[in-house]
Amino acid sequence: MRYFSGLSVAMGALLMSAPSYGQSAPAAVAAPRPVAVSVDASKTVGALPPSWRFFGADVPNYATMKDGEKLLVQLGDLRRGEVYFRAHNLLNTGDGTPAFKWGSTNIYRETKDGKPIYDWTNIDRIIDTYIARGVKPYLQIGFMPEAMSTAPAGTPYRHNWRPGFDYKYIITGWAYPPKDYDKWRELVYQWTRHNVERYGRAEVERWYFEVWNEPNGAYWQGTPEEFYKLHDYAIDGVRRALPTARVGGMDSAGPGGSFMDGFLRHVTSGKNYATGQIGTPTDFLAFHAKGDPKFVDGHVRMGLDVHLRGVNGGFDKTLAMPALASKPVVIGESDPEGCAACPGLKNGYRNGTMYSSYTAASFPRIWALAKRRNVNLEGVLTWAFEFEDQPWFAGYRQLSSNGIDLPVLNVFRMFAKLGTDQLAATSDAELPLDEIMAKGVRGQADVGTLATRTKDGQVAVLLWHYHDDDVPGPSAAIRLTIRGVRGRAPTATLFRVDEDNANAFSAWKKMGSPLNPNVTQYAALEKASAMQPQPITLTAEARDTVTTSITVPRQGVALVVLNAR
């Protein structure tokens, strides 16, 4: 059994509902695999949008808690003022106490005679926290306040779901259409007007506004037509308060099927329920794409092929309507699988280097798909944040555990060091996109590269060594050649994420997997989680060509940055 490394049998039983996943001790493997990577720094092959800078979570209230605030600082520092955050449950009725897949703000109540009561206190705390840390809202308008819900009599409003329960227990009174669409529109209008007054018009113009989450699935307990009406009234409320607001949707589960087809027809040529005009303002389109990991033969097997086919299917939809085909696209949730709050054997990739290498390998393929399909890809949103006051490395899909960064967060730090001009780069061990989409990475490992030039002239080369199967394998002995180097021979810096670098989970296991690390251990974990820049030697092969050798372990990621001279 590969799991509960460092835990006693008794502790393993105690934590079975929230496993501490990890990799077994390295076994003897074959000699390193030679790989040749070549970069031509003189040849730009196109733009590379920083679409990685989007994140999200089910629980909005974690943002204002100790570890949530700490993590938002980390996200804001990736690219201050350009990182976006999406959260469910922003309009839910409740006292603001978070729970699994639940949050609330109490933004709307009614008097006994049905008059609205707006309370911005909790929602302001959340958005204030974003803004103060350099993060901007990708504002999801949902879910339904209790006083407005048309849920059948006897339906509980708040759910009490927990990991292990069937997903159907999540769907309670918050998931229903409103009793009064005018009141729904007025709530959205008043909230948007309040945001403009509080944060300023220029600030709010930079936000994204979309309605609901995955209305083609269980999250919406109405008909498609009722959702189109809900969407129209909400967008009308936003645009009444701020005519220049950036609005779109529909953040469907997967490509969205016939529900998305109907939505796209409605917003382009249907009669708007709120205004009576033809069509609904649409500045961007959104859908979700997920992978499908399995637990097979005692280990996790990822489903990168499923994820990429989902992305491609979503692009099919966004390109289907000529009037919308050039609109910006945001993959509003893009993840290895569906439920961030659901630990389990198949999700045992989350704490260690499987998640980080998967992320490094998947984003370049999504970028390549968008370029191939001529899609205006603006955002790829990672649905991962943190789970407050849970056991250490409890197996949730998150970016940090108890305030300590997981390896995957360092891959986003690597992305933040990339430029927006993509350079010509090849690896003789990189698998073709079509092969991965067809059958994943099940044979030879994928040792790939992506190179960019930054605004200040640096060349940044991303390298990843990924396999769908979480089993030991040989390292990649990479010979990196960079041509077209400007000026004098540059120096270079190496950043790593692997079992021995920028990996707090690995360090925690070496400590004996303490349930409650003390202050000294906490400081050691913080240090272990951080990427440590390492100078590397470059050899001049010609006037404008340099080479270096780097060994990247299986499921490892590396970034080489040539320092500007």
From TrEMBL:
Residues 36-529 form the Glycosyl hydrolases family 39 N-terminal catalytic domain. The keyword Signal applies. It comes from the Bacteria. Keywords: Glycosidase, Hydrolase, Signal. Residues 1-22 form the signal peptide. GO terms for molecular function: xylan 1,4-beta-xylosidase activity. It is an enzyme of class 3 (hydrolase). The keyword Signal applies. Its EC number is 3.2.1.37. Belongs to the glycosyl hydrolase 39 family. This is Xylan 1,4-beta-xylosidase. The lineage of its organism: Bacteria, Pseudomonadati, Pseudomonadota, Alphaproteobacteria, Sphingomonadales.
